[in-house]
Amino acid sequence: MPRLAGLFRIPLRVPHGIALTFDDGPHAQGTPAVLEQLERAGVKATFYLVGEQVARRPSLAAEIAAAGHEIGIHGHRHVLLLRRAPGALRADFDRAEAVIGEATGVNSLSYRPPYGVFSLAGLALARERWSPLLWSHWGRDWERRATPNTIAARATRGLGPGAVVLLHDSDAYSVESSWRQTAAALPAVLTAALETGEPFVTASQST
Predict the structure, then answer these.
(1) What φ, ψ does residue 84 adopt, rounded to 5°?
(2) d(CA 125, CA 202)
(3) Across all residues in the chain, what is the average pLDDT?
């Protein structure tokens, strides 16, 4: 991934600070669990929301934005971009932008594709309106065997300036109840990030 991302100038890191990011929400239980911990720690994160999930829970999407977290776009449907024609991609992006914008009241600046995989058409279309961002660290919290310990260890290994940490506040596209493992791992992730002395930033704050 790093070599391909570099070839196509897709950032895996931010210029400074540590960016904590959450994909696939909002989720009725996972998102509130994550929001509660972030509020307690005084940390702002970036939530890459899925339009079809926002359509189910618009008030929860609004709650994320009202708490001061950045709203990113993760598409309307969580489908691999490589499987979609340019016209279908544009329609998906349009719908995601409209649904998420209406629910949150903000214009998103950042985009991350489902599964972290761009097609050439998807990358070009996304860049027309957003800045793409992938990640440098992940907890692999969607896996069946993931535990709070393994998630925290993977997400914080070599953590330092410019790191982008990927976690999930939703199990909509992964193992059922995986969000519980993520929520349980989050305190250790936050502690490790704080110990670096780096500030927390959101995707657009880092530019």
Answers:
(1) -125, 140
(2) 23
(3) 96
* 8 Å CB contact between 32 and 201: no
Instruction: Output the six-digit token pair for 71.
Output: 């709203």
Task: Please give the distance of CA 51 from its chain centroid, rounded to a whole number.
Answer: 13
Contacts 24+ apart (CB under 8 A), 150-157: 151/181, 151/182, 151/185, 151/189, 152/185, 152/188, 152/189, 152/192, 155/185, 155/189, 156/188, 156/189, 156/192, 156/193
pTM beyond 0.90:
yes
The contacts of residue 92 (CB under 8 Å, 6+ apart) are: 51, 75, 76, 77, 79, 84
Neighbours of 195 (CB within 10 A): 10
Q: What is the DSSP string of 123-140?
A: HHHHHTT-EE---SEE--
Judge contact between 18 and 163, C-beta under 8 A.
Answer: yes
**Lookup: tokens for 174:** 């992964």
Dump pLDDT digits (tens) for 167-183: 999 999 999 999 999 99
- Look up tokens 């410019």; give the residue: 162
